[in-house]
């Protein structure tokens, strides 16, 4: 499992692509990830926008922060380009957790 560092820094957060993209990247300590949109199974955010969850065919992704409901809108448009700890107008990402979802690979 990969964990993001606590506390957001300026310049990170959620980066929006200007057009639809086929892949999005996630940066966690010691590792950079690239996922194709075609492998996303579902996602949800709590109503306060503090916790976001996404299941792909191979991994589970948890993001903690603020204004994370914006991720739902951007994922629906396939315009999330990058998620990393930090803050910008689209939201604040304080922590990222990624774990393998081996059962998802057989769906």
Report on this structure.
This protein is mainly beta. The protein is built from one helix and ten strands. Strands 1, 5, 6, 7, 9 and 10 form a six-stranded antiparallel β-sheet that branches. A four-stranded mixed β-sheet has the order 2-8-3-4, covered by helices on one side. The longest helix is centred in the last third of the chain and has 8 residues, at 69-76. It is globular, with a radius of gyration of 13 Å. The protein starts with a strand and ends in a 7-residue tail after the last strand. The model is unreliable at 1-9 (pLDDT under 50).
Number of β-strand runs: 10
- What is the rounded Rg? 13 Å
Q: Major β-sheet, in short?
A: 6 strands, antiparallel
Distance between the termini: 21 Å
Total helical elements: 1
Shape: globular
pLDDT averaged over residues: 87
Structural class: mainly beta
Which stretches of 5+ consecutive residues score pLDDT under 50? 1-9
Q: SSE order in H/E notation?
A: EEEEEEEHEEE
Helical proportion?
under 10%
Mind sketching the topology for me?
Layout: E1 2-3, E2 13-16, E3 23-28, E4 31-36, E5 40-45, E6 51-56, E7 59-66, H1 69-76, E8 80-84, E9 86-88, E10 91-100
Concise synopsis of the structure shown:
The chain is mainly beta and 107 residues long. The chain is 7% helix and 52% strand.
């Amino acid at each position: 499992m990969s964990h993001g560092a606590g506390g957001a820094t300026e310049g990170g957060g959620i980066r929006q692509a200007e057009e639809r993209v086929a892949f999005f990247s996630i940066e966690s300590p010691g590792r950079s990830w690239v996922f194709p949109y075609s492998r996303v199974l579902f996602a949800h955010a709590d109503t306060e926008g503090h916790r976001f969850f996404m299941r792909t065919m191979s991994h589970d992704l948890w993001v903690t922060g603020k204004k994370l409901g914006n991720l739902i809108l951007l994922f629906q448009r396939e315009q999330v380009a990058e998620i990393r700890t930090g803050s910008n107008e689209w939201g604040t990402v304080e922590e990222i957790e990624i774990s393998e979802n081996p059962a998802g690979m057989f769906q």
